[in-house]
Amino acid sequence: MKIHFPEIVASDAVTRHGAFVAHPAMEIPGKGTFAIYIKGGADHGLWQL
Q1: Is the CB of residue 21 less than 8 Å from the CB of residue 14?
Q2: In degrees rounded to 5, what are phi and psi of residue 3?
């Protein structure tokens, strides 16, 4: 599964695959953008630099 930001695309992709968006995409200036989703009881983090 390849997920791209912005937030709406990432949220749509993970929910289509049965996951729950725990933290929507958020930019941290100078660090990149991250989002967190939960699937199968495991937390997964996505980073885009």
Answers
A1: yes
A2: -120, 135
Helices vs strands, H then E, count in the chain? 1, 3
Entry pTM = 0.69
DSSP H or E run through 23: strand 20-28
3-state secondary structure (DSSP) of residue 10: helix
* Domain spans, the chain: 7-48
Please list the pLDDT of the chain residue by residue as tens digits (49 residues): 555 555 556 677 778 888 888 988 888 999 988 889 999 999 988 888 7
Q: Where do we find the tokens 């100078």?
A: 30
Q: Are 35 and 19 in contact (CB under 8 A)?
A: no
